[in-house]
Amino acid sequence: MGKTVLITGASKGIGRELAIVFAKQGYELILVARSRELLEDLGKRLRKKYGTDVTVIEKDLAEKEAPEEIFQELKGREIEVLVNNAGFGDYKEFAHSEWEKQYVMIQLNVTALMHMTRLFLPSMVERGHGKILNLASTASFVPGPNMSVYYATKAAVLSFSQAVSKEVKGSNVTVTALCPGPTSTNFEDTAGLVNSRLFHSLKVTDARKVAVCGYRALMKGKPVAVEGMSNKFLVFGIKLAPRGVSLTMINQIQSKLREGKPADQ
Ligand SMILES: NC(=O)c1ccc[n+]([C@@H]2O[C@H](COP(=O)([O-])OP(=O)(O)OC[C@H]3O[C@@H](n4cnc5c(N)ncnc54)[C@H](OP(=O)(O)O)[C@@H]3O)[C@@H](O)[C@H]2O)c1
Description:
The longest helix has 29 residues, at 99-127. It is globular, with a radius of gyration of 18 Å. The protein has helices spanning 13-24, 36-50, 66-73, 99-127, 148-167, 187-190, 198-201, 207-220, 229-240, 243-253, and strands at residues 4-8, 28-33, 54-58, 81-84, 130-135, 173-179, 183-184, 205-206, 224-226. It has one domain (4-253): NAD(P)-binding Rossmann-like Domain (Rossmann fold). The chain is α/β, with parallel strands linked by helices. NADP nicotinamide-adenine-dinucleotide phosphate is lined by residues 8-15, 33-35, 38, 60-62, 85-88, 108, 135, 137, 180, 182-183, 185-187, 190.
């Protein structure tokens, strides 16, 4: 039997591409998302093409009990790699945002990711091997006006991943935070970013490239991986600049396209 990877948010975008990359490498797949049909279709395709064993779990990870239910369902299976990928954003000034949506975002992007890690990490440490890939973002490095909650969730993912990566150092278990910039997936539509400059001012990458970058960084056990040269420059600049300067720059990038002005003018 091959090694097993559990991927959340595998029905679309980066998670789907990650599933393809792992299938090519001979992993058995456990795919989680809400869209059962999309997962089944992908599973069928990957079984046919790579002879991969695929298990589909339909689950809303924003629900409190979801990680525990997944863990119980998989009792007895050795999970070599956990990919916490499911997540979404929301492009709205905080004062006018819908609280329920922000709450669900925090539940999914942060709480479920931490809970899944808490459930699957101990057995990895106990047996002395395993890997976790957490989807952070270039948004992890700076506050993001008009997407304040999303940027804050991604800052939490990076901070958490780096801290746990240090805790498990020496155990042969690694934790990697993958930080893509704007990537062509359903994310833009789900977040309502059509009128934002974000996907127009920065280089947009395709999801396959992000998945390959994440897979390689994970295999090397890197604690943090920023995808692409332009994103690396951006993050380098953010780290060098005073926080206020980075914030002003991101405020411009996050401003509305039609108005052509930063949100606070
Ligand atoms: N695209 C970008 O520009 C970008 C940049 C940096 C980081 N990221 C991060 O990359 C990750 C993947 O995003 P993406 O760009 O691939 O977006 P996407 O195409 O919208 O895919 C999001 C995935 O998450 C799943 N998901 C959403 N809500 C869920 C829930 N409540 N329970 C279970 N699964 C759920 C979706 O499946 P269902 O709808 O079927 O549930 C889908 O498979 C996210 O964490 C995102 O923050 C994206």
